[in-house]
Amino acid sequence: MHLAERSNSGGKTLLATSLFLGLPFFAIVSLVASEFDQSQPVETVELAPLFTDSAVLQRDTELPIWGTAPSGSSVTIQFAGQTATAVADTDNRWETNLAPLEASSAGRPFIVESDAGQIILDNVVVGEVWLCSGQSNMEWPLKQDPRAEHLLAESDLPLVRQYKVKHNSLEEPSIDAEGTWVPCTPDTAGDFTAVGYYFARQLQPKLGVPVGIVNATWGGTKIQPWMSRQALKNFSEVADKWNRTLEELPTKQITYEKELEEYQSKVTEAKATGTKFNWRKYPKPPPGPATKFAPSGLFNGMIAPLVPYSISGILWYQGESNCGNANSYSRMFPSHIQELRRQWNSKNMPFYFVQLPNYEWTYDRTGIKWAKFREAQMEALTLPNVCAAIVIDGSTPNDGHPPDKEYVGTRLARLAEVRHYGITKGDATGPLCRSAKLNNGEVVLQFEEASSGLQDQAGSLTGFELAGPDGKFRPGGARIEGDQVVVFSQVVPEPSAVRYAWSNNPTSTLFNGDGLPASPFTMLVESSRSTGY
C-alpha cells in the first residue's frame, strides 16, 4: 500500500505555526490532514503492510484481513480452504475476516482477487505472533552478539520469522508501513532482534508451531513517541514540553546547519590531508516533527499500521531513555499498555516487559536512579496479565547495551510458557516480595513466584537494608527460613521499612529454585502492599 504523498516541510511549518498560535498539541493532526489531504486515486487492490510473502498468521482467533482498493470494487480472499469477501468503501478501505485457523507449518498461498487486480502471497503459515517493541536493547540485532558467527551458522529456523518495521515518525496515524516477513536462516538471522530471536528460538520447538516476531523498535527513544494521542491525553506536561521544543526549533535548526557545515568541512579536510578525525562526533539534528522524539510519532508511523493484525501478545524492552523521570513513567507506562490493548481490542492481552538490568551508571551520583526506575516499571504489575522479566544478574554491568541477550529472551519466553501457554511448570519469574511483617525486632518477608523455593546463590544473602523511624537505610543481615527471608540489624532495632538490591548495579544473591533472581523492592514493614510493584 502507498499513502498519498504529503509536503513534509509544509507539515512541519503548519505544526510549528499552530503551536506558536497556542493551539493544543492534540488538535494539530486535524489541521495537518485538512491542509495536506491531496489523496492520489487508488487504482489497484492492496493488502495491509503485514500481509506479505512468508507471513505468520495468528492461530485460533478470528483474523482481520484488510487493505485498499478502488471504491466499490469487490475483494475476495482465499486461504486454507476459506473464502471471505469485502467491498471497498468510499475511502477505498476494505476489511473482512477469516474464521480461526489451526496452526500449520506448511506454507500455503494466500490469494486476493479483485476487479482491481490479483495478489498471491507465497509460503504463508499459521502459528503464534508476538510484537517486540522498545528502544535499542530490543532493537539490538543478533549479528552484534559476540557469538554471532556460531549462532548464525546454526540459525536455519524457517518456522521462526521476523517482520522488521522501518523507522517512521508521523504526525498522524498511518495505515502504511514498510517491511516484509523473513524466515530465519543463517543469511537473515543477523538482522533479527536478538531478544526476539532468543524468545522465538526457545518457544517454537516447545509449541511445535511457527512463531513470528514483529520488530517495531527504535534506539534512543522515550516512551512518549510510542504512546498514542489517546494514551497521552492525561499528560498535559508532555504537550507543554513539546510545544517549548518546537518554539526553540528554528533557532536550534540554524545552529545545527552551521555545525553540520563545519563538520563536513572538517571531513573534507581530513580526507585531503590524511589526518585523523573522529567521525562519530557528527552533529545531531534537533528534536522536531517527523523525528523519533515527537510525542505519538512512532505510534503513528510504526504501531498504528499494524492494527488490527492478530497477535498473541507484546514484548517490551524500553526505559533507559526515560530513566531519571520515574514518577512520570510510573503513570505513563500503564496508560501505554492499556491503550495498546484497546487498539487490539484485547483487554487482557499478555504484556511482558524487561525490568532494566544492572548497570553501573557513572553519571548518577545518587547510585539509585535505575533502582527507582525499576520500581516505576513494576507499577504496571497492578494490571492483569502484565509480567516482568527480572534481569539484574547480568554479567556486563558497565555496558548500556549488554551483549548477552540470550538470558533476556529466554526469560521472556519462560513468562509466555508458564503464564500464557501453560507448557512449563514452576515459577514464571524471579521472587516478588509481597509482605514485610515485624516479628521480635526482625522483618519477615513473604514472596510470590517462589514455589520452587528460595535460594542463596552467592554464599550469603546481601543487599538487604532496614530503616528505622529516621528513614535512613542501613545494611542488614538476612537468612532464608523455608519460604521466607528474615532480615535483621542490631543498629536498626525498630525497623519500619526494608529494601533489597536498591542500587543501579546491585549484586543478586536471592533466587528461586528455578534459578531466577528476586526483583529489587522497597516496602514498609507490616504493610501488605509494596512500594516496589
From TrEMBL:
* Coiled-coil residues: none
**Which GO BP annotation is one of this protein's?**
carbohydrate metabolic process
**Which Gene3D superfamilies did the record assign?**
Immunoglobulins, SGNH hydrolase
For this protein, the record's SUPFAM superfamilies field holds: SGNH hydrolase
Any one GO MF annotation of this record? sialate O-acetylesterase activity
Q: Where is the Sialate O-acetylesterase domain?
A: 128-388
**Entry keywords, A to Z:** Hydrolase
UniProt name for this protein: Sialate O-acetylesterase domain-containing protein
Lineage of the organism:
Bacteria, Pseudomonadati, Planctomycetota, Planctomycetia, Pirellulales
